[in-house]
Model the fold of this input.
Amino acid sequence: MAQLIGKMVTYPTGHGYYMIYKDNKSTFDLGSNKGKKEPVSDFDEVEEYRDYDNRQRSVRRAKSMVRDYIACNNFSHFVTLTFSGEQSKDDDVRLKVLSNWLTYMKRKHGKFNYVVVPERHKDGSLHFHGVFDLKNFELKKGINPKNGKHVIRRGQQVYNITSWELNNGWGHAEIIRDQMKVASYMTKYVVKDFETTVSKNKKKYWCSKGLELPVQSLLTRIPKLVGGPAYENDYIQIYHF
Done:
């Protein structure tokens, strides 16, 4: 049987990356220790390590999924959703508001693509960033109330999402120029303490159903690699192509 040495991930643009396993076997093949018991005296230390390792894997998985969903599907705008001062700062309330708004928008406009991730303000309250297909949404050109001029950011018009601003706070949308750059940019919100951004067992990101993912192929031989790895840790090397 051929030995699994990694995988190739290809995006619709033709770009992608090779993930090369340093020990020449997938993490899914690491079953030899299954069922083995850890020493009782080290139980607390082992559980702490497992908990940390699980959190790290969860962050890496969330980053990968957010990036891949954005890179492989059509979105029109980068969106920021915030709340007015009158709104509750309770996490559960704000998560419910987001969920209810997304549900209402799907009923009103039909299926549309979106990926949303949470971020905390310095005061600890949640707001959201995302990418959306807003072609059927009502958008208005943002106007600065202090001078009456159009709101321009990074050289382009910022739009207001009226359906969000009606009851919640501020919803700003900017036309996406480079979707791959936005995919990389969005992963910066998936930070090292991402698992604690919202409570345990709560969603860490939201996405519409039916989104495409990149094509993955298993590697049994090392491909032609150009230059050094773009990323490396104790277990894998990533090479872009």
Residues 30 and 143 are 57 Å apart (CA to CA).
